[in-house]
Amino acid sequence: MLGSLVSRWKRLLAVLAVSLVCGWASGQDFEREPINYGTASEDNPVSQLQARLDSGETKLTFDDRVGYLKAVLHELGVSESSQMLVFSKTSLQRHRIAPNTPRAIYFNDDLYVGFCQHGDVAEFSAVDPQLGTVFYTLDQEQTDKPRFTRQNDNCLLCHASTQTRSIPGHLVRSVYVDQAGFPVFAMGTHRIDHTSPLAKRWGGWYVTGTHGEQTHLGNLIVSGKQVREPVDNTSGHNVIDLRSRLETSAYLTPHSDLVALMVLEHQAETHNLITRANFTTREALHAESRLNKDLNEPDGHRWQSTTTRIQSAGNELVKFLLFSGEAPLTAKLHGTSSFADEFAARGPRDAQQRSLRDFDLERRLFKYPCSYLIYSRSFDALPRESKDFVYRRLWEVLSGADQTKDFAHLSITDRTAIREILTATKPGLPDYWKSSPATTTPR
């Protein structure tokens, strides 16, 4: 009896220890094991380009007007059509930013590039499969050996906060901005993603495109520090030409395309959630391994708290991948650049020529509401325990087994189309994805 009592107390203490360690790890202290954010080797588009520059395989051409911008975009596969212009002083080179000299942002699936007129540096945030977002600058002075400099402390003050779920991530904000470009913080700010109503989006951004009677905060400059809501932004709506607002010839294109903005908002938060699932799983497994050793449990012994943490982060990711809570559109959107056509053309497509990159832009962002970032290196680099869970949850939803309210926006047609597209185009799916939903529901 005494032995049984001791065993029960040992188990209770073990559970308490797991809870304490997991609680410590949940602070996402990514500078420690197992992430080692500041010291681990990078493997992302910028670090790969730097390796090509160092070896002499690649050279960057300097332009007197935009420095290394055009050359870097070309080398990194970032289209100029992705250009968006933001005029709020909310980034590293804020002294260069104002309504008449906005900061330009360009992006592809795993890279974001910032450019300021006459800026000291070009700014980069690269998506790294193991480190989340890694930040760099490139001096905008001509040299024989251009070098990307990794930035941690300056960028992480904003880009590793509660706003980014305490991981190195991306942040898209909407703010009221005065005539000098300063945010009017007394009016509040909005962190933006695909769940945000259009009416709260794009404060501090220029926006080109048409959207019917839907409203937004783009192209709006306010006077003074006290603004009465609702603000009349009629003159900022359905704008297709910015030349009356700034000198567009100073940039690579005259656009700040609203479709590009909407894709950016979805993509940035999806990257954050992929990183969170990655970090949470690795931290939970690392803590579990230490506890098993300390408590003389067999290697690989699974604690329920570990499973709970992995599943919690995985469920958040699944909901976002499937556009749960997406703010509906009430009118057709049209951009002004070639961004939408170029983005959609990148595929991949199934035998019926359907792609997760096909736009809807009338009721919602995409025709088939499952994120194209499921094809990304970051998603593929998720730890096995996390990816297995995400795949299982996706199958439960897309097969129709999960009919909960989080996925009520997905019709039977939506679920079938997404499942068929993924089965045809996504390598590495579990075998049960190839079975009929009526006969196979994984446990």
Structural class: alpha+beta
Query: Separation of termini?
Result: 38 Å
Q: Nearest-angstrom radius of gyration?
A: 24 Å
**Count of helical regions:** 10
Gross geometry? globular
Helix percent band: 25-40%
Strand fraction equals 5-15%
Strand order of the main beta sheet, please? 1-2-3-4-5-6
- Strand element count: 8
**Biggest sheet details:** 6 strands, antiparallel
Which consecutive residue ranges, at least 5 long each, have pLDDT under 50?
15-28
* Helix-strand string: HHHEEEEEEHEEHHHHHH
Mean pLDDT: 91
Outline of this structure?
By secondary structure, this protein is an alpha+beta fold. It contains ten helices and eight strands.
Note down, in words, how this protein is organized.
The model is unreliable at 15-28 (pLDDT under 50). This protein has ten helices and eight strands. A six-stranded antiparallel sheet has the order 1-2-3-4-5-6, with helices on both faces. Helices cover 33% and strands 9% of the residues. It has a domain at 260-434. Strand 4 (121-128) and strand 5 form a beta hairpin. The chain has helices at residues 2-25, 45-55, 69-76, 153-159, 258-294, 304-321, 339-345, 377-380, 384-398, 412-425; strands spanning 84-86, 103-108, 111-115, 121-128, 132-139, 148-151, 173-175, 189-191.
Characteristics:
443 residues, 6-stranded antiparallel β-sheet, two-stranded antiparallel ribbon
